[in-house]
Each structure stands twice: as structure tokens, then as C-alpha cells.
Amino acid sequence: KQLSFVSGNLWSFQCSPGSPHVYGRLNVTSSSGPICRICHEGDQAGPLSSHCACSGTMGLTHVPCLERWLSTRNTDMCELCQKRFPTVQTRRSLKEWISGPGHQKRALFGDLMCFVVLSPIAFFGLELSVQGASSQATTRHVWQAGSLIMLSCLLLSAFVIWTCTTVKYHYRNFRDWQNVNMKMTLVSHEDATRLNLSPSVA
Fold it and tell me: What transmembrane ranges does the database entry give (predicted)?
């Protein structure tokens, strides 16, 4: 096995003598100055700034990179110096939850399809039961009419209970997802003071 550099950041790799060479390029930044500690790009990708107590280039980041990093980790604290960033946390929308990956979305659409299918069936069965009870009542078949009315109430109750339970289940999943996927937005120290954030944050 032999690794050699051809020119610049171009390299070639040969597994054994006589085997073909494999060529590639090193993934290096084109910036010779300070770089963002998250994306490893320089100021050509945007202005670099420091928002924590890390010294030197370790504290330099692009604001969008830092916001995405904090949102992904669901924290407002630097993992190196443990200082809190001046951030405002906002909950993500229902649209973001639905458009995101995961089995929760499939379960939601599955229950929506069940609701679409079961709704007309439930109301059609309820209407038939009410009409049957009405016709039985006019012919003085009290027991048959009472049985149909009871069947109508049971059918309606089962549909309402299933609907409420399903809505509550998905709403709880949505709120849990929001709590662990907060959107972090960096603010200036002046805005942090104006928004009455804690001193450790500001």
C-alpha cells in the first residue's frame, strides 16, 4: 500500500504494485486565516465572531453554524467553556414537525386516513340507527327502539373517544418533539439585557 501526493491537495493511492492508482483530493479549507470551529470554513463563508469565553480561534464561529449546532444539541451552553450563549429559544411549528422524518409522521397520516374512512361510516351507521329507532317507536316496538338508540349512543361514544384519544396522543408527541427541538437564535448582549435574560446568559 502506498499513498503519495501528486500536486497540491491531489493524492494517489496504490494498494499493491501493478494495481491501478486511485486518485482523490483532500478536503481542506481555502482560508489561511481563522476558521469556524464548526464548519471549518473561513470568513469567505461569512463573518466570524465569538460569543463565549473560549480564547483564540476556538471561540470563532459563523452565527448560522452556531445556531444550527445549538438547535441540534438542544442547548444554549458552550461544550468547551460551559458559558451560556445569549439566545432566544422558540418552538418549532407544526409544519416543521409534519415535514420532518420519523415514524410519528407516518402514524399521524395513518390515523388521518382512518379518520377519513371511519367518519362517514360512523355517521351513516348513526343515521340508520336513529331512523330505525324512529320507525320502531311509531309501531310501538319500544324495546327494539330502545336497543337501536342505545346502539347509536355506543357507536357515537366509541367514535368520539377514539378521536379524542388519537388527537391527544399526537398532540403530546408534537409537544415532546418541540421540547427537544427548540430553535436557538443568537442575540446581542444589548438585546439580551433588554429581553431580561439571566445574567449568565447575557
Answer: 107-126, 146-165
Q: What stretch of H or E contains 158?
A: helix 142-180
Distance CA 91, CA 70 (A): 14
Between the CA of residue 169 and those of 54, 95, 111, what are the distances in Å?
Answer: 43, 17, 11
Contact 2, 13 (CB under 8 A): yes
User: Do 88 and 195 contact (CB within 8 A), yes or no?
Assistant: yes
- Residue ranges covered by each domain of the chain: 46-86+187-195, 99-180
Indicate yes or no: pTM above 0.85. no
Please state which CATH number belongs to domain 46-86+187-195: 3.30.40.10
Q: List the 10-14 sheet strands across, edge first.
A: 2-7, 10-14, 22-25
- Average pLDDT for runs of 10 along the chain of length 202: 43 48 45 79 84 83 88 85 85 83 78 89 80 74 74 84 92 88 78 52 36
Who's near 193: CB < 8 A, 6+ residues apart?
Answer: 202
Q: Left if phi > 0, otherwise alpha if psi is -120 to 50, otherwise beta: which for 74?
A: left
Buried b vs exposed e over 169-178: b needs ≥16 C-beta within 10 Å? ebeebbeebb
Please classify residue 62 by burial: count the beta carbons closer than 10 Å to its beta carbon, then call 0-12 exposed, 13-18 middle and 19+ buried: buried
